[in-house]
Amino acid sequence: MGFPYRAVLFDFDGVLANTEPLHLKAYREALAIRGLTISDEEFYGRYVHYDDAGFFRAIFAERGAPLSDAGLGHMVRRKSEAFRRNLERADMLFPGARETVETLYAQAVLGIVSMAARVEIEAILAAHGLRSLFSVIVAAEDVERKKPDPEPYLAGIELMNRERPSRNRIPADQCVAVEDSAGGVRSAVAAGIYTVGITNTISAKELLAAGASRVISDLRELLDPIL
């Protein structure tokens, strides 16, 4: 029995690449400049699905601290610099990620829909020899409305179909999304995509409450024919 979907759209951080701890460390380094802190529970429970600008807007608003446009740009740059320094690790992929991606590549169109910066996504994929397997990448800078809004996934579907004749377009209901955060699950579900949650970041209960149709603990479970 072959894979039952024509396309798989992966979130990136927390799904394919184990970069969430590095993002948190980089955010903490940037926030320290302003004397602010964030706990693990806050980050993974409330902020993990944000892009960099959205994260700083949200946390400064939560803390009641003023943040000008110039200040926001400075914080984003400081975080990006810290993240790049923290990227110097040999292997960023979750167990089973390479095997799953390489197996699915022979059966479906693969894409990434992430609120990470494109330069970070491209660098990690290239370092692991996987860039050529993804025909579509939607990054934070490619959309105006971020997750949990459906725009990122709708953009991914549109980009995936841009060069396809109308008779061969891939509709949302022939795609599966893989997400690790509640906001990401809501984004994919709102776009009409069958959504699988993976428990790399939050619990199965939280993923199901957000609307995931199925929850897995290892990416290799995507290869299960009963999906």
Give the strand order of the largest sheet, numbering strands 1, 2, ... along the chain. Answer: 3-2-1-4-5-6
The tally of helices reads 9
N-to-C span? 11 Å
CATH class of the largest domain: Alpha Beta
Largest sheet: 6 strands, parallel
Alpha-carbon Rg, integer: 17 Å
The tally of beta strands, per DSSP, is 6
Order of helices and strands: EHHHHHEHEHEHEHE
The proportion of residues in beta strands is 5-15%
Protein traits:
single chain, six-stranded parallel beta sheet, 227 residues, DNA polymerase, domain 1, 9 helices, alpha/beta, 2 domains, Rossmann fold
Write the layout of secondary structure elements.
Layout: E1 7-10, H1 20-32, H2 40-47, H3 52-62, H4 69-86, H5 97-105, E2 109-113, H6 118-127, E3 136-138, H7 151-161, E4 175-179, H8 182-190, E5 194-198, H9 204-210, E6 214-216
Parallel strand pairs: 1-2, 1-4, 2-3, 4-5, 5-6
Helix pairs in contact: 1-4, 3-4, 8-9
Could you please describe the fold and organization of this structure?
The protein has helices at residues 20-32, 40-47, 52-62, 69-86, 97-105, 118-127, 151-161, 182-190, 204-210, and strands spanning 7-10, 109-113, 136-138, 175-179, 194-198, 214-216. The protein is α/β, with parallel strands linked by helices and 227 residues long. It folds into two domains: 7-18 and 91-223, Rossmann fold (3-Layer(aba) Sandwich), CATH 3.40.50.1000; 20-86, Putative phosphatase, domain 2 (DNA polymerase, domain 1, Orthogonal Bundle). It has a six-stranded parallel β-sheet, sandwiched between helices. Helix 8 runs parallel beside helix 9. It is globular.
